[in-house]
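User: Sequence recovery, please. Input:
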């Protein structure tokens, strides 16, 4: 079965989608025009806008967490702009186009779902997980990634990369036997951190190393508990912010200086 045999025929909605995609592509082309475009947009390259791409992805996640549909729409638009921007830079350099990007991900999704786009039949969820891993392994092999951790991107935010490294290692059995072992390891690492912070003099590099160990184990604990550490930390941040704002309001209400207050 071909990749296109299960796709739907164009509809009025898809025509409108195409028009709007053409519009943003045209806008980006104008912004990048060396003669008449925006000076800031013209001077950007892959590396310079990569931080904005990361920022926009996090803003999408923030909007999703808040459940604000209008913000989700707007933030997805900002993220889409980053894709169009990067693709335009690549096209100008003769590397690839936005069409190549869309084709690549479409082909990948078809290849990863033979039970939908092929003749394999609909698998049970447990079977699908095994198939997914086999397909991903084939993709890594085609790219020359022979090591288990080879394609875990170095540019990921540290917490997300730690989680991916741990998940990848766990797939081949490099994992703790149970969650109690991870909790014990966390206690061990916090004790080592405490020891480093009480040295005289304090070796800041060693403190940093121990803090890293504590964070890495905490991420592993979250993984084993079935909790996304990023989501958990976002919730904790929101809780702290809410409590701190309450304290600010109470201080103002009773005429106190928050700088003079303690925990």
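Assistant: Recovered sequence (263 residues):
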């Amino acid at each position: 079965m071909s990749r296109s045999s299960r796709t739907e025929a164009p509809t009025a909605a898809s025509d409108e989608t195409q028009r709007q995609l053409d519009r943003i592509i045209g806008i980006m082309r104008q912004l990048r025009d060396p003669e008449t475009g925006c000076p800031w947009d013209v001077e950007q390259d892959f590396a310079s806008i990569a931080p904005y791409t990361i920022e926009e992805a996090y803003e999408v996640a923030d909007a999703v967490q808040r459940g604000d549909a209008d913000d989700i729409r707007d933030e997805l638009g900002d993220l889409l702009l980053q894709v169009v921007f990067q693709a335009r830079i690549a096209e100008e350099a003769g590397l690839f186009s936005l069409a190549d990007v869309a084709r690549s991900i479409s082909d990948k999704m078809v290849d990863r779902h033979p039970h939908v786009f092929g003749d394999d039949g609909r698998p049970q969820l447990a079977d699908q997980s095994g198939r997914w891993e086999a397909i991903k392994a084939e993709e890594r092999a085609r790219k020359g990634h022979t090591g288990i951790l080879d394609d875990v991107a170095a540019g990921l935010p540290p917490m997300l990369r730690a989680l991916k490294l741990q998940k990848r290692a766990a797939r081949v059995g490099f994992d703790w036997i149970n969650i109690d072992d991870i909790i014990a390891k966390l206690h061990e690492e916090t004790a080592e951190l405490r020891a480093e912070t009480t040295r005289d003099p304090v070796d800041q590099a060693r403190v940093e190393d121990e803090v890293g160990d504590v964070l890495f184990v905490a991420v592993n604990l979250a993984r084993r508990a079935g909790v996304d550490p990023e989501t958990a930390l976002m919730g904790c941040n929101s809780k702290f912010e809410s409590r701190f704002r309450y304290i600010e309001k109470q201080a103002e209400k009773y005429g106190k200086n928050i700088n003079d207050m303690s925990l």
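Residues 1-5 have pLDDT under 50 and may be disordered.
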